[in-house]
Amino acid sequence: MIITLKKNAPKHDVDKLIDKFEGMNLHVTMIQGDNYNVFGLVGDTSVVDEKSVMANPIVYNVQRVAQPYKLANRMFHPEDTIVDVNGIQIGGKKIAMIAGPCSVEGEDQICRIAKEVKAAGADMLRGGAYKPRTSPYAFQGMGTAGIMAMVKAREETGLPIVSELMSAEHLDEFVENVDIIQIGARNMQNFDLLKAVGKTKKPILLKRGMSATIQEWIMAAEYIMSEGNPNVIFCERGIRTFETYTRNTLDLSVVPIIKERTHLPIIIDPSHAAGDYKLIESLSLAAIAAGADGLIIEVHDDPEDAWSDGAQSLKPKRYAELVEKGKAIAKVIGREL
Amino acid sequence: MIITLKKNAPKHDVDKLIDKFEGMNLHVTMIQGDNYNVFGLVGDTSVVDEKSVMANPIVYNVQRVAQPYKLANRMFHPEDTIVDVNGIQIGGKKIAMIAGPCSVEGEDQICRIAKEVKAAGADMLRGGAYKPRTSPYAFQGMGTAGIMAMVKAREETGLPIVSELMSAEHLDEFVENVDIIQIGARNMQNFDLLKAVGKTKKPILLKRGMSATIQEWIMAAEYIMSEGNPNVIFCERGIRTFETYTRNTLDLSVVPIIKERTHLPIIIDPSHAAGDYKLIESLSLAAIAAGADGLIIEVHDDPEDAWSDGAQSLKPKRYAELVEKGKAIAKVIGREL
Amino acid sequence: MIITLKKNAPKHDVDKLIDKFEGMNLHVTMIQGDNYNVFGLVGDTSVVDEKSVMANPIVYNVQRVAQPYKLANRMFHPEDTIVDVNGIQIGGKKIAMIAGPCSVEGEDQICRIAKEVKAAGADMLRGGAYKPRTSPYAFQGMGTAGIMAMVKAREETGLPIVSELMSAEHLDEFVENVDIIQIGARNMQNFDLLKAVGKTKKPILLKRGMSATIQEWIMAAEYIMSEGNPNVIFCERGIRTFETYTRNTLDLSVVPIIKERTHLPIIIDPSHAAGDYKLIESLSLAAIAAGADGLIIEVHDDPEDAWSDGAQSLKPKRYAELVEKGKAIAKVIGREL
Amino acid sequence: MIITLKKNAPKHDVDKLIDKFEGMNLHVTMIQGDNYNVFGLVGDTSVVDEKSVMANPIVYNVQRVAQPYKLANRMFHPEDTIVDVNGIQIGGKKIAMIAGPCSVEGEDQICRIAKEVKAAGADMLRGGAYKPRTSPYAFQGMGTAGIMAMVKAREETGLPIVSELMSAEHLDEFVENVDIIQIGARNMQNFDLLKAVGKTKKPILLKRGMSATIQEWIMAAEYIMSEGNPNVIFCERGIRTFETYTRNTLDLSVVPIIKERTHLPIIIDPSHAAGDYKLIESLSLAAIAAGADGLIIEVHDDPEDAWSDGAQSLKPKRYAELVEKGKAIAKVIGREL
């Protein structure tokens, strides 16, 4: 940790601060500058609260050198983590393709679409049973009936299923029935929910919060991991920016960054980022080329009558075309799909 | 609702869309343009999902005219809502002053600071017992012991108490002990939590999400109100922007906007917005001048040793000076403090 | 143009507004809603200033239906524009590869790097002679000597040259010597400069402003085109967001959007977006897969001693590897490189 | 400057880097950490390019301690700068009130409005003669005729005049006729224009760029000052954020920050930030309470027929009311208006 002091800080106050740090078993090195003096603290600086240090009137700036995450940090875990989902691996050579409707609308609908996306090349099925909707007056999801309809679709197709958990109240239902538990963007810093899923061993798909920095996102993974669950899969779904043409701005630079900083897999959700089916193919192929470990894409066979997010859903035929092109791109970069 | 169709949309498809809307009991008016045709839909358009309409390939654009909120909407409730908190009113002539430490650190600490902020002019006491921290390794709050320490501080000073609820699991504890339940920025779209506090009658301090639009924020209030709880107080605490000098960017334009669009009170939290005690006085006086109904400010008597957020905490003496200036400004705009 | 009036707008004022629009030769259709009334204006609405309409107290909202750009609009020019740069085409089947150092540092340096990037597969040479630097104390570019060094590099390699023009004062020098004139992000709305380059026939590389919406960017192209120069090439170089890990956030969704909305080519600059050489390959391959018409990449043979932007420069060898992979991806999507 | 090296950087490369810095007459202190090693550089680090250092593969991070600005830096110039504009002072006890229409529309209009704003309490007159418009098809300003109409208004009222310069081409006209030269948000990093106005002694009103950080804004002032012109007045006019309800988000925290970091005056433009006349009074009073040195507000006597920006213009009567309230708030914080 590097602490910059203000010019002309009284010697008495500087000494007091040094004593305080040494009392925390930290080693202090001082660099005398022309207008500022700088402390370097060596040791376990995780015990130091940066904001309390900043509260000291002689302090000008505080900067952490070490990353605040440990379990997710590639520095301490150099090899890639591969998350196993009922035999399908995320983070290995093969790129995982997850597809399905935004909302489960009934058993027929989800079973029908499951077969279609499987035929088109999907490895897993997505579908929302509990829906985070901006309006309390909008369809809030089928709940348990939706989860059970997905279970039926899994029985009929063999595809593992992914669904979003919005409240710890339904955790048991998800642990029992679902193969990947999704934590949505709006709950990325719902720390109680993170701790709850951290106590399971289920694979967790952790979506990036709409305005979460990469570091905050990794810290959310760290919350899950610190409770004992190492099976975290990052999912970028666009960040909120000033641009309103797209629903969100897909940030593909996170693919190489997450891989450099952590050992965990990362997949891309182009559907929520773009909010427009016409952009999905471009962004999906880009994600594969960038090195993503998977894609989660909304597919519906009747988008105009979908109960939610129709505008961003691909029809199965277009999805199948995308998968074909994706395969060719995966091969170029030494992967499979 | 205004729907713009693409040029040269096939007549057959246009007619089919008109039929669909008329089947929803909506009246359709058509405006023929040179390059686009426009539908106006009149009636209860809350039954129409914009994104499904957008999924129709002949549709170019969809725009809602009416606001999607009803209970919070000033159009249907012209007079101001005043929220009563144990006899202290928020939203009336008097500006409510809430102060206290970021975290409760013990009974002595919170009782001592409670007395100091009361002496300085505060009307209510804030203090965090359950803390949303970016890191799982940071102090997570005293929990129940912290809530009980605040109850003790209320007994000793008479100040109503405000604290943040992070999970519905602790709702009973909060309903029983706390005077205002705070929903933090990170949980503004934790819809299950919003529904849970909506089932109580407690005043709810609803912080704006870090990247929430004004409309999303009002919709979060609508979630609470639609469950039966009309006692919502908005709290602006800064939004996330590209600027990193301040922790967040305080958006004071929300004060007149929330008052124009809704009938609910709005207070300002300059401490979390600025993240720096040196900026608090300026921003607090600005908030009063802008017409805010209250201020919630972090005050600590030993910021350098605070367990969290020391850098943004005022000492009681500086808080007292701020209250004095605030009184004079309140008078200028016809209010009290 | 769609104008929403407030509820209970006085009939007299509504009639006055209708008269005003009819006086502008616009046809007015009215849709009566429950809480709002809506006008549709048909005709040449480019004569109507939205903000003046909004100034009318009976008006609630104004929305343009037609895009404000004409010359750049694909609606009126369906076929792709291909810009010819000394025989090299941008916007056709072949993806254009532009490479070179951030700053020209001397004739030897630029000639040497020109040969290296040519050998690695580049089609054109970039190099800054006039540099927009945040600090007045930083190296400001070699100026005319830098341009002449680039001319020399062109003579030696045959590569067309691209350089940034910062002021109309140097326009003649650029028209005479440079093959593509670059307008930098900071000058995207320097309207006098746009008009000046619009009076030439030179190809213009128009970088997106750091916080420019897609529409503002297209309008900047419209400024150039409206002066008579149709040779505009868009260049995305990252937008400013809350994320600070990367210098800017590369927005690849603009590739399909620009191609849908306009008929002009679009290329990608991953170097300025990422600010970190380690991210360039991922983002470059993603850009090709997304459908970009070209890439402009910073390459330097001694990044640690570069006079500017060393951290984001690739060494020639890594650039050559990138080109090889890019070729394979281009083939997958039916293009060449 | 603090440089963090990667763990296990080869000793040979570390020594080479130390030699390089010592060759620049910098003193190097090293702090050995567990996972990182840190260099502190002492001396004139303005000669070091951060991005070149970052290009070295053994370097993990680089941080400047000293601010990169000198002339604007309060550290080296502790007393407030007061800019004199024809006898009216900006930055002293009195808060400067600048008002007038967005665009000059003719001599009658500007003279009439000048008298109205003077009667209402304004100290100076604003008016645009050269207009930066998003669309090439919108009114671009009256040009020289507009400037001469403002000169006439000054003759009739005695109010100094403020107008925006968009190109160095018109600099002589502005130096001769205008009292304050405004540099607009879109040109804040048009470095050639900054250098040009830096060569005059005219007061410069430097608007903050739409997505400029505070540091970039101060560096733009430094550009002007480094050419010899110390008369820079900062003007905050809102920044671009995700929120679209307002045109931009007014960032009032810059008032105390600019005053802490620099010695220059800062004024606020609530009109362009809000884009809506209904928000102007709240934001103006807030700006005064926050400590701003002045306000620049758009006033028009017929906003519905204004040639630009009608929606955000106050009528003179409302402006006069605002001035009255502003006077009372100024008094509270020990200032005048």
From TrEMBL, chains A, B, C, D:
DAHP synthetase I/KDSA domain location: 83-327
InterPro entries: Aldolase_TIM, Class-I_DAHP_synthase, DAHP1/KDSA, DAHP_snth_FXD, DAHP_syn_2
Keywords, comma-separated and alphabetical: Transferase
UniProt-listed Pfam families: DAHP_snth_FXD, DAHP_synth_1
Domain DAHP synthase ferredoxin-like, residue spans: 1-66
Domain of life: Bacteria
Enzyme Commission number, as recorded: 2.5.1.54
A GO molecular-function annotation: aldehyde-lyase activity
BP term (GO), one: aromatic amino acid family biosynthetic process
Name of the protein: 3-deoxy-7-phosphoheptulonate synthase
